[in-house]
Amino acid sequence: MRERWVEAPRITGNEELARLFSVSPMTMRLIRSRAGESEAEVRRYLTGTVADLADPYLMKGMREAVCLLMEKIHSGARIRIIGDYDIDGVNATHILISAFRRAGAKADTVIPDRLKDGYGINEHLIEDAVNAGVDTIVTCDNGIAAAKEIAYAKEKGMTVIVTDHHDIPYREEEDGTRTTLLPPADVIVNPKQEDCAYPFKKLCGAAVAWRLAEALYREAGVPREEYLELAEFAAVATVGDIMDLTGENRIIVQYGLRRLEQTKNPGYRALLAVNGLEGKKLNAYHIGFVIGPCINASGRLDTAKRALQLLGTGSKAEAEELAGDLKALNDSRKDLTVKGTQKAIDLIETTELKQDRVLVVYLPDCHESLAGIIAGRIREKYYKPCFVLTDGEDGVKGSGRSIPGYHMFEEMTRVRELFTKFGGHPMAAGLSLPKENVEVFRRTINENCRLTEEELTPRLDYDGVLPICYAGEQLIRELELLEPFGKANEKPLFAAAHLTVKSARIIGKNQNVLKAVLEGPDGTRLDTISFGDVKENLAYIEGRQEVCILYYPQINEYQGRRNIQLTVESWR
C-alpha cells in the first residue's frame, strides 16, 4: 500500500530563534512546527519543567475531592480504589493507593478481571465493597460512563469519587444538540468536564491521579519530593495509553523517564532488568514497545493484579519473580497476536468484508483481551477503522482502533442502542453487544460512514527535503532535543531523492529487517534499515535506477563502532 507523502507547511524566519537557542535553523523549524512559533512556546517546549504544570486545584472537583478524602481519612473510613486492567489503570491505581496510605488512609484496591468483570466499576464490585465494610469508592481511569453503576452504589449509601480522563458521555438530541450524561457521584475529577478550568485536557487517567496525589499531599503535609517520586508511574501510563506528547504530557514524560532510569521502585527496576534496559537511557519507545506491553500482558492473559503487585512490592526477590512472569506472559501474548491477526486477514481477504470502509471482524475464538491489539494491526495493514469482536461470557465483546478523520466514539454513539456497554476516544473504543447485533452493527456502522477515498489513503507527513549528505552527527544530536517522540510529537521525517541502491538484503532472526546501502548524487553512501513488509519493499526497490525515501537519521553503535544509519519509513 503506497502512502501519500505530504510535506509540512514551511515555517520561515527561524534564524534568530536558532541563534538564541543555539541550534541550526533546520532544527528550529522542526521545533516550531511542533511547539508553536513564538519564543515563549519554543522555550516551554525546550525547557518546560514540572514547576510549569498548572495548579491541580484548577481541575474541577479537585478541591472537593481532597476535602472529602481528608474527612474520610480523619474519620477512619475504609476507602476502596477501583482501577482498570490496562497500563493506565494499573499505574493510576498504584499512584492512588500509595498516596492514600501515605496520607493515613485505610485503603485497598480492586482491579476488575477483564473476563469476569469487564471494564470499570460494576454492581458485583459494589456488592463486594458493601460486604467488606467499605465506606468510599474512588475510581481511576474509569467511572465517567458508569452512571447506572454509581447510582447503585449511592443507593447502598456509599460515597463515590470518580477520577477519570475519558470523554464525557452524551446523548444527541433530535435537534442535534448534545446532553451530557454525568454519573451521580459525590465528586467528579475529569479535565474534560465542560466547565473545568484546568488548561490541559489530554491527561491520562494516571496523570489525573498524580495531580490528585499532589493536592492531597499538600493538604496532608507530605513533602513534595514524595509526590515527585510518583511521576514515573504517570509517565509510563501517558506513553502506554498513547496520549498526545504535547504540553503537560511532554513535561510529565520527560521528567518521569529520567526518574525511571534511576527508579527506587523494585518492580520497575526488575522489569527494566529482565528486558535488558537496566542502566540505559530510556525513551518513549522503551515504554511503548518493551515495558508497557509487559504491564498490559498481565491484564490480558492473567490478572492485572499481578502487575499491580509488581509495582507495590518492596521485595527484590518477589519483584524479579513477578517481572519474569510478566515478560513470559508478554512473549505468549505476541504469539497469540500473530495467530489472531492472520485469522482476521484470512477472513477479510476471503469475504465481502474487504469492501467495507469500516472493518468489523468477528473472531469468536480469539482471546478477548487481544482484540484491541489485533484491531490495531488490521488498521495498519488496510488503513481502515477496525473493530475486532469475540465471544465473551455475556455476549460479544470487542475493541476498535481508528484512523484520523474517523471519530470512533462519536460514530458509536450514533448506534448506541446496539450496545450493552461502550466507551472510548476518537481513536480507540471498547464495546459489548448481543451476538444477534454483530451483523447489524457491521452494516449500520458502514452505512453511516462518511470517509472519503482520500481519507482512506494512508498519509505520511514529512518535515522537509534533506539530502542524505546533510544527515550528520550535529543534526542527530540536535534532534534529540525534540524527544520524547510519540503521538502528536512525531519523530522528524525527511525526504531524499535520486538515491541509488548499492545493496539490499533481508536480515534479522525473524527476517523482519530490510538492510540497504544507498548512495546520494554526490557520492555519499549510508547504511539504512527499514521494517514493515520487508519482502514487498525489497521487491519494490530491486532493479530500480533510483529511489526516494522518507527517513530519520540516527547513530548506530555496534561492537564499539559508530556510524550514521538511516531508518527508512517509506520507499518510492
Describe this structure in words.
The protein has 572 residues and is of the alpha/beta class. It has 3 domains: 4-47 and 459-571, OB fold (Dihydrolipoamide Acetyltransferase, E2P), CATH 2.40.50; 52-261, inorganic pyrophosphatase (n-terminal core); 351-447, Diaminopimelate Epimerase, Chain A, domain 1 (Roll), CATH 3.10.310.30. 41% of the residues lie in helices and 20% in strands. The chain contains 20 helices and 20 strands. It has helices at residues 15-20, 25-35, 39-47, 62-75, 87-102, 123-131, 147-155, 205-220, 224-228, 231-240, 247-261, 266-274, 284-301, 304-312, 316-349, 371-382, 408-413, 438-447, 473-479, 534-541; strands at residues 4-7, 78-82, 106-110, 136-140, 159-163, 170-172, 178-180, 187-189, 359-362, 386-392, 395-401, 421-424, 428-433, 459-462, 464-465, 494-507, 513-519, 525-530, 547-558, 561-571. The chain has a 5-stranded parallel sheet with strand order 3-2-4-5-8, with helices on both faces. The protein is globular and about 75 Å long. The model has no long low-confidence stretch (mean pLDDT 94).
